[in-house]
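Thread amino acids onto this structure.
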């Protein structure tokens, strides 16, 4: 019997996103992957979303792209829609963070929640309250909370074949991500200056004051190049052409999509040894884990010893869409079998 799945996406951005929107992107990849396998999926997302699944929506456009949309009102209408139709489905897969959990005990349909990260310790009590009534997936072992029970850790997957592979060494370093203290643009600039290798910076400016203080003064169009938000095609070209991706994070990253995207292109990653990085990077093979900028400088000197082919193989082995889809299918079935 085909499992009927309600896939609840966030609505900050379109599914899939036009530019930024990591949660929406993973929801899209998972949804389309399940549909390709013949699963019966209904995607609850913004009205302008694109999908081969059945599509239900209450909000026409994402609130981060349309200032006329009231985020709280949109979220209320969006989340309630799937739970008011819960009886149609065998399982509800929540990718909308903690708020939908408050509906979970009001319906008979089991609710599986992928916890894409904890934005604050303040949201943990909600997860704790519904720990025994719902099912949780972590996106890395590092991001598991000790007070919660988990069905499994399922790593994100990407369509590896859509990433151009480059066997040759690039002539620049790359920072790709939100321009925010957490992501370490300041540290990437400092490391690039120490090694005298040009740095290309691409990503959405999430903290304008951080950008003006720590990034903008260094941008000269030569040694430090700022490109802002880039489209998917440009992003892939930048990743494939880089000597290395710098991921010098100042927080415990739950996963790190740009890290696997870089390795899919054959580009090694130099990352701070924090959060999920030791799980995602094969240290000494697909990149280096560092503790400070001095470690980073030494790592850049050793980049030639790494195999770009091995970087690609690592992602094919562990972080493909097919692997992610198959793992979620197994979890859906396991939950239904137990019930």
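Threaded sequence (339 positions):
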């Amino acid at each position: 019997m085909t499992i009927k799945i309600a896939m609840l996406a966030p609505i900050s951005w379109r599914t899939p996103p036009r530019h930024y929107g990591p949660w929406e992107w993973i929801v899209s990849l998972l949804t389309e992957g399940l549909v390709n396998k013949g699963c019966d999926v209904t995607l609850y997302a913004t009205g302008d979303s694109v999908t081969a699944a059945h599509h239900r929506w209450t909000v026409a456009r994402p609130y981060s792209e349309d200032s006329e949309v009231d985020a709280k009102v949109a979220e209320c209408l969006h989340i309630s829609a799937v739970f008011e139709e819960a009886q149609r489905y065998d399982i509800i897969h929540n990718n909308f963070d903690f708020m939908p959990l408050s509906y979970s005990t009001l319906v008979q349909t089991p609710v599986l929640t992928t916890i894409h990260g904890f934005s604050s310790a303040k949201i943990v009590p909600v997860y704790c309250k519904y720990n025994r009534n719902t099912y949780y997936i972590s996106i890395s072992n590092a991001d598991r909370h000790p007070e919660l029970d988990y069905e499994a850790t399922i790593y994100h997957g990407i369509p590896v074949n859509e990433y151009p592979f480059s066997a040759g060494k690039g002539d620049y370093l790359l920072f790709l991500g939100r321009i925010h203290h957490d992501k370490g643009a300041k540290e990437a600039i400092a490391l690039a200056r120490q090694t005298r290798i040009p740095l290309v910076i691409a990503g959405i400016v999430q903290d304008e004051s951080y950008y003006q203080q720590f990034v903008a003064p260094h941008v000269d169009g030569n040694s430090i190049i700022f490109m802002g938000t880039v489209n998917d095609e440009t992003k892939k070209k930048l990743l494939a052409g880089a000597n290395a991706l710098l991921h010098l994070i100042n927080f415990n990253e739950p996963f790190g999509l740009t890290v696997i995207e870089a390795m899919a292109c054959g580009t090694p990653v130099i990352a701070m040894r924090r959060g999920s990085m030791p799980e995602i990077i094969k240290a000494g093979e697909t990149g280096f884990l560092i503790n400070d900028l001095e470690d980073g400088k030494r790592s850049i000197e050793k980049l030639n010893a790494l195999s770009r082919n091995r970087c690609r193989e690592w992602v094919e082995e562990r972080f493909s869409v097919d692997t992610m889809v198959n793992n979620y299918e197994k979890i859906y079935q396991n939950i239904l079998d137990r019930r």
